[in-house]
Amino acid sequence: MFDQxxxxxxxxxxxxSVGNAALWxxxxxxxxxxxxxxxxxxxxxxxxxxxxxxxxxxxxxxxxDFSAGMIKVGRERHAxxxxxxxxxxxxxxxPFADNxxxxxxxxxxxxxxxxxxxxxxxxxxxxxxxxRVVICEFSTPxxxxxxxxxxxxxxxxxxxxxxxxxxxxxxxxxxxxxxxAWPTQPVLSGWLRDVGYESVAYKxxxxxxxxxxxxxxxxxxxVPAD
Length: 226
Known about the structure:
Elements: H1 2-5, H2 9-16, H3 20-32, E1 39-43, H4 49-55, E2 60-65, H5 68-77, E3 84-88, E4 101-107, H6 116-126, E5 127-138, H7 144-165, H8 174-181, H9 185-195, E6 198-205, E7 210-216
Parallel strand pairs: 1-2, 1-4, 2-3, 4-5
Antiparallel strand pairs: 5-7, 6-7
Helix pairs in contact: 2-7, 7-8
């Protein structure tokens, strides 16, 4: 499905989010706080839009995605950026060593993983001790009025917009259903704690339509000198 929409994926996202997609990704980049020389894993990176922002401070980014079509477009689009490496990968079986990355991040992709809790365990495995995870994902607005209006948009307005903006409108049929079925912010926070992350917190963006989740993999305790 993602192979089929890869060509116009970024444009469609911008239209469907009424321009907010860029702002949400900016918030995610700030939460990751990439530093020069760090090695960062950007999962479900798609065409590399989020990955590019992470390289601006000198971090090396591995842009991983399950879709070969997305990876192909990303490699072509960012061929001149030596700080991005594109890798086709399954989020539930990452082809990386334990404790390899200073930060692991995923934006609007965890919801598309069949076994998200298994993916979170993989994120934890490849995060270095002292490293962090940042997840940016559609969520549940806590205000019932906002929540009702939002789901009305997903079910009634968005399908019509998709027909105009996407290269394959049928591929987006799942979107509203997947967002409605996604767990609330406290539940996702609990999943992060379950796999081992500490200092877990979340921040609502755009009235809770999107939420940023963060956690840290604890560094090993110092061994006292004899």
